[in-house]
Amino acid sequence: DKLRRSLEEPDATIEPGFQPVSATTLDGRRLSGVAKNNSNYSIQIQDSQGKFHSLLKRDLKELVYHKNSLMPKVALSADDLQNLLAFLSRQSMETPEERAKRLEHGKEVEP
Questions:
Q1: Which of 10, 37, 76, 104 could pair covalently with 69 via S-S, beta carbons 3.0-4.6 A apart?
Q2: CA angle, corner 94, sides to 42 and 74, nearest 5?
Q3: Distinct helix (H) and strand (E) counts, the chain
Q4: CA 17/CA 36 separation, integer angstroms
């Protein structure tokens, strides 16, 4: 089960948009966070405070993609892990846009 594996081995698969990176600009400024909107020419890094930094790759001295996830391994008993998995599996996976289409003024809209 993908969810269980993500909790037990967070480094096994890092989803796009959550890849930890560190960058050093040509003028010596250092940034770290997760890679967002990565292209051949530019990268956007979201830092730990949620601030976005847009950088041209030609202005970088170094760009390092880290292999370890920022999410720590869970240290739970088997029962607690099963309870967490049960809770998470009941959570909605719909996007805010999908939810807005489904609801009108907080009430379910007929399809």
A1: 10
A2: 75
A3: 3, 7
A4: 5
